[in-house]
Structures are given as C-alpha cells and as structure tokens.
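Supplementary notes for students who missed Thursday's class. We covered one full example, reproduced here. Read the sequence, then the structure, then the short commentary at the end.
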Amino acid sequence: MPQSASVELIHVSKRFHAAVAVHDLSLTIYTGEFFALLGPSGCGKTTTLRLIGGLETPESGEIRIGGAVVNDQPPYVRKANMVFQHYALFPHLTVQDNVAFGLRVQSRRLPAGDVRQRVKAVLELVQLPGLETRRPHQLSGGQQQRVALARALVLQPHVLLLDEPLGALDRQLRKAMQTELRRIQREVGMTFLYVTHDQDEALSMSDRMAVMRHGALEQLGTPQEIFQTPRTKFVAEFMGAANILTGRVLARTEHSVQIETPMGLRVICQCAEAVSVGTSISVVVRPDVVQVVPHSWSWTGDNAFPGLVTRKTYLGEVTALTVALPGGDTLLCHVPSRLEQQFGYQEATAVLVGWQASDSHVLQE
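Structure (token representation):
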C-alpha cells in the first residue's frame, strides 16, 4: 500500500536578506513517520521547521500539510504544532491549565468536561498524572518538557514539529527522554518532525532522516543508510568519526575496487558504482570496523597493514587508537576497551590493522 504524505515541501526557498537559509528544497514526510532533520548550525533545518509551522513565509515553492497547501495559512490555522527547546510554559498557570490553554483558545465551544478529559488523557500519555495542580517552577526539567509536549499533543495536530526539544536537558535525562518520545510517537501514531544537530538522537529515534547543508538536502534515507553508506565526505564526517582515503583506481571487479593512495597504500573497497580504472575516488572506513591485533598475528581479510600506534585516547566503552601506516597514511581505530586493556597497546606499539572490503564504502562525491 502506498504511503500517504503528511508534509510536502516542493521547491521551497527562503532568504534572510542576502543569506540563503533554504534553497529549492523538496521533501516528503509520510504519515505516522518519525522524521529527523539533522545538520550543523546554520544549515537551514530550523528555518525549514518554522516554514512548515507558519512562523516563516517561503519566497517560492509550496508547502502542503495533509495534502492541503498552507503557504498563506497563519500558524494557528495549520494542523501543525511546535515544541521548542525552551518550553515557554506559563509560569502562573498550573500543569493542567498550561496543557489546556491552546485547547480552550482553539475550541472555545468545547465543553469544560471534554477539555478536562482530553487533558487527563494526554497527561497519562506523557506519564504526568497527579501533577495537574503544580506550576512549572515545581517541576524538573524533564517534567517541564513533558508538559510542553502534552500541550502540543492535546490539540491533535496532523504533524508535531520538535525544535531540539531535549537541548536543555542533561545527558542522562536526554537519553531517557529520547526513549519516551519514541514511545509516545508510536502510541499516538502521529507524524513527528524532529530537528537536531545531535547525530545519536537522529540515529536512535528516527524512521528516516535527512542531513542538511547550506539550506539543501545533502542526503536522505534511513539511519542505517545514512551512517553506513554516506554519499559525500561531508555526510561521512558529520555522522561520526571517519577515515577518508582518497586514491586512484588500480583495478575493479563487479563488486569491488582497489585503490592506491598518494602514500602508496593499496586498499580494496566495496563498490557497486561504475568507476573506471585511473579515476580518483574517496573511500570511507569507519573506525569501529577496523580491527587491531598484535603485530605477530596473521590476518586473512581483504585489507591488512602493519602500523605503529601513535596516540591512545580512552573513551569509555572504546579506546581510540591512531595508527600510522607504511608510507605515511594514518587510521583512526575504535577498539573495545576491554580488548585494548588485554593487549596493552601503548604509543609506539607495533600492530596489525585490517578490515573487510564490505566494511568500506566509496563516496559518490
């Protein structure tokens, strides 16, 4: 069954004076999808969210929500509600009145009993029953975030817009609230459009995600596609630590290529694209796929190189090792800390590094 579109942007552009915030952006978000917009500061992701919510007006293009064009509709008419990083709760109102505020403004003729029932149901959904009479200053940061979420959900929008809503929370609470947001989204079946610059949030929560750069989409896909098969060097590096090896194609088979870097390193890499011998291409190898073993061990994989550890950084579950290879190339390797402690790698330790061709990927751009 074909998926129905919840939000559509068709060749949408937006400028702020001479600065281009969003450029010719086309994007479809499906009904019931948890979609993340990811990118560095200034890439246009928040402007895109505000365009959908009606807080900004596009200079060109078309915005549709639930199939209806909303370009000229004010925010309070659109079936889209926004949750901000700063929750903007009314300090003088109780939790119940904060949640009910928009409902009362939007539906003045709704019976008071119906308002109370909807508020009660949404507070149970966000796991805040019993706190109805408290005021914002009597709540923790996580509880305030849930109130802001409940205030948006109670209006039953077609799409919920979330602008880095966990940015003000500490690390442990952020992790907990990521799980809660995903649970709530699944329970209500509503479309969530989530803006963040945090790669872990986007990867762990979204069904699909888009990486933005300079007001345009750099890559669109599932979290697995974006992380494992980035199209460009920008996406590869933005999604986490990455080894980028650039070299000339020496040979190719149906599913792989061999390249030689300027330093003389020869690497075999998975490649389904049509690239010719002699072409210069770039390959990404994630640090976590590179295995590091003592120099005396043997390696039967596609790529194996002797090297020397030049730097060691303990990161908790993993230890980052920088390994210098023959000729001058270097690799960043993430080794489980228990294994690193077992082998006792130190700076200047001779090691063998290796990975399979299927664990590397040719960048298209």
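Commentary. The domain at 243-363 is CATH 2.40.50.100 (OB fold (Dihydrolipoamide Acetyltransferase, E2P)). The longest helix spans residues 171-188. If anything here is unclear, bring it to office hours.
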